[in-house]
Amino acid sequence: MALSDCGRVDDATAYALHAQAARRALADSGLGREVVDGIASAGLGTLAPVEVAEYLGLRPRWVDSTSVGGATWEVMAAHAADAIAAGHADAVLLVYGSTARADLKARRRTANLSFGARGPLQFEVPYGHTLVAKYAMAARRHMHEYGTTLEQLAQVAVQARANAATNPEAMYREPITVDDVLTGPMIADPFTKLHCCLRSDGGCAVLLAAEEYVADCASTPVWVLGSGEHVSHTTMSEWEDFTVSPAAVSGRLAFERAGVGPADVDIAEIYDAFTYMTLVTLEDLGFCAKGEGGAFVEKGRLLRDGELPTNTDGGGLSAQHPGMRGLFLIVEAVRQLRGDAGEARQVRRGGGRLPEVAVVSGTGGWFCSSGTVVLGR
């Protein structure tokens, strides 16, 4: 696995970031490009992943272009693992790259308020119900239903920033306080600016390979123990409960298939486009009871040396967020499990041991989809 250059990248195309990440991931694996017979990619070009494969000079016999927002990469990882187990592919490259920030700065595109106004979305878009507004509405419902406070939500951002402080690849590393979060510019009530993810450039790649390649790998293997996926809704009126994310299903399936439970998890990498996403996903994965997420996060449990180190690179709130960030979660989980995160930010559990089990949970759309993968050494 590997990242491309990330953060502020003004002199590269999205295709170039794909290629840079792919080359680095192959170098990290120690395997040659000739072993890659599968590719999974989404979000770039008219015929993704065909265009990406051509750019990389690959002719895969297995492809996946599943696109379910930020959860895309966890779902693709599950599909790739199944394909390898079935003998349909030997080595599948998951690769992503985006110049979302640079394109806005250069005015090659504008910020999107919605994903379109056709189909079911036509009944919401004309009323100005933006993506951030959908998450804000869900957060307000949780606050109303369970007494979750703005201060508790702000703790998610504060702890993400503290984790980013030791990550040289994070865009923002300076400490922030709960007061900084609460007094920032309002984006969509109750979310101020620091409740929301940043916008960056960047790419990453992950190579999933059959067990027979382990002996030839240059790095310690990390195993896919189990996975699950679930889609919930696209129209807010069809979402039965704003306080329950699709991770409630994908997480249960992943843990069951992995043969482990939340108590066995050493680290969690959770999609965090907004602070509420982290809080409610922790509940739905079973780390605390429904409605207790606020109390859970306010005790410093998400810090690198906390009870449940979460988003150990700083997450989308502080490290980088170039769009569909789910693949970055897998990269960070692998780094931590292999002990490759660097001494300053490497998670150590009881007795100084390296983490052994990680849960990675991606979310797409506005809690529309979820993919959860359990990884282990």
Automatic annotation (TrEMBL):
Instruction: Cite the CDD domains for this sequence.
Output: SCP-x_thiolase
- Name the keywords, alphabetized: Transferase
Q: Which InterPro entries match?
A: Thiolase, Thiolase-like, Thiolase_C_2
Q: Name one GO molecular function term.
A: acyltransferase activity, transferring groups other than amino-acyl groups
Q: Which residues form the Thiolase C-terminal domain?
A: 228-377
Q: Give the superkingdom in one word.
A: Bacteria
What is an example of a Pfam family matching this protein?
Answer: Thiolase_C_1
Q: What is this protein called?
A: Acetyl-CoA acetyltransferase
